[in-house]
Amino acid sequence: ALTIGIVGLPNVGKSTLFNALTRNNVLAANYPFATIEPNVGVVNLPDPRLNQLAEVFGSARILPAMVSFVDIAGIVKGASEGEGLGNKFLANIREAEAIAQVIRVFDDPDVVHVDGKVDPSSDMETINTELILADLQTVEKALPRLEKAVKLKQKEAAELTAVQAAQAVLERGDTIFSSIASDKLELGYLKELSLLTAKPFIYVFNVDDAVLGSPERQAELRALVAPADAIFLDAKLEADLVELSEEEAREMLEMNGQEESGLDQLARVGFHTLGLQTYLTAGPKEARAWTIRQGDTAPAAAGVIHTDFQRGFIKAEVVHFNDLIEAGSMAEAKSRGKVRIEGKDYVMADGDVVEFRFNV
Ligand code: GDP
Fold it and tell me: Residue 227 and residue 223: Cα distance in Å, rounded?
């Protein structure tokens, strides 16, 4: 499954946020075959297109795409050296596809801060330093082997150059992910090393209502982490929201000047960070969003529904969501020539509404 690991210092609100994520499991009931592990929380990706699609097809139910989150134990100074839960922590984090780092911005004299004061940039530095040190160990271990392999012409010199460039980035205290563009890092050559800081990062600032209402303060915090994505939420508010009905939750968000819950934001940004997109299927039974990677072809997309669909793929009948809604019905979209027959090389677009033809 596509998962995002949640990390952060102790007492920053990780458990509070994670409990909101797991209590949000309304959806798990819709996916009887999905085994939800106790440390996994699932959020549905908000997608207003599904409601419109269900209207056009008279679909009985709606199944949005989901994003999963894994709770990874808190990290403390020295984790890269095996302090505390160090090694277990690093193993868990290696398995996640992206990292959501929770950072405390809220002030509360009743909640102790491990380092004595609330300081977002210092906290980020602590976490990132541990991840960077762990990566440096990995790189330093790999380099002698790689140098030898290049000498024996078993590996390309370009690979060595790429790993050395990564080493330089880590040595100056930056993460790989934040330096991809500036240092022209060749991620392809680094893949084998599974570097922690090469994973996409999302920064989750756990704030109070003052910051929720202050675009200026948010811009300052955002600048600390650019070019990574940042979201702002109040973990305590999120925990309350999941206890409410949809309508009550919307009212409470409005009262706090928010258009979207933090969990919804987290799902949306996580989806974007992971390089994912959705395509849609619809019929009288259900209107549904399916998760694929940007750049996936039609057979790969079919395979997400069932491996048989991919193996026996013949063609796909595709209409873009916007064209379908403009036409108002499948029949009208067809008569307007908006429904295309696509073959196995077709690269899917976000919002394609698809029916697959396949051999069984
Ligand atoms: P973790 O150690 O990172 O998992 O942190 P917890 O989720 O256990 O939170 C630590 C304490 O901070 C708990 O008492 C929470 O109720 C409190 N807390 C979490 N988020 C917020 C928040 O947004 N505002 C305030 N005031 N307290 C929070």
Answer: 8
